[in-house]
Amino acid sequence: MTSGSDEVVVLARGGLADEAALLALRVALAIPLGGSPVRLLLAGSACLLGLADAPSIGTRGSQVDREMDALLNDEEAPVAVERESLIELGCLDRPLRRGVSLVSRAELEDACGRARHCLVV
């Protein structure tokens, strides 16, 4: 995985229950409005957002699906989930959402290190 120097990386590490992962998704959606390319990286329990069959998050579920689709399709932003997090959660064998890639922890750290900014949520 390569990151351009003008790219802003949003690293979502928070959970779905405390809405940190959802906040990270919304931040990633807002960044292109300012003209910067964005990449969303999902780690910890936030990686569940990258699954094709993501767990239910109540009444906001369809909104989250629309926001992920907008980020992937409208903004064409790269979205990746951390392999080690999926392993820890027992979800490595579950399919990813179309357009989401699987990366190692080292690749995730490299992307943050090479980005113009790395926002951790």
Question: Could you give a quick summary of the protein structure above?
Answer:
The protein is an alpha/beta fold and 121 residues long. 34% of the residues lie in helices and 18% in strands.
Give an account of the 3D structure.
This protein has one domain: DsrEFH-like (Hypothetical Protein Ychn, Chain: A, 3-Layer(aba) Sandwich). The protein starts with 7 loop residues before the first strand and ends with a strand. The chain is built from four helices and five strands; from the N terminus they run E-H-E-H-E-H-E-H-E. The model has no long low-confidence stretch (mean pLDDT 90). Helix 2 links the parallel strand 2 and strand 3. A five-stranded parallel β-sheet has the order 4-3-2-1-5, sandwiched between helices. Helix 1 runs parallel beside helix 2. It is 34% helix and 18% strand. The chain is α/β, with parallel strands linked by helices.
How do the helices and strands line up, and which of them pair or pack?
Blueprint: E1 8-12, H1 20-30, E2 38-42, H2 61-74, E3 79-82, H3 83-88, E4 100-103, H4 105-114, E5 117-120
Helix pairs in contact: 1-2
Describe the largest sheet: 5 strands, parallel
- Class inferred from helices and paired strands: alpha/beta
Helix content: 25-40%
CATH-defined superfamily: DsrEFH-like
What is the name of the CATH topology? Hypothetical Protein Ychn, Chain: A
Average the pLDDT over all residues and give the rounded result: 90
Spatial strand arrangement across the major sheet: 4-3-2-1-5
The total number of structural domains is 1
What are the secondary-structure elements, in order, as H or E?
Answer: EHEHEHEHE
Counting H and I runs of at least 4 residues, what is the number of helices?
4
- Looking at the overall shape, the CATH architecture is 3-Layer(aba) Sandwich
Share in β-strands: 15-25%
Return the CATH class: Alpha Beta
What's the end-to-end separation, in Å? 21 Å
How many individual β-strands? 5
Choose one word for the global shape.
globular
Radius of gyration: 13 Å
**Low-pLDDT ranges:** none
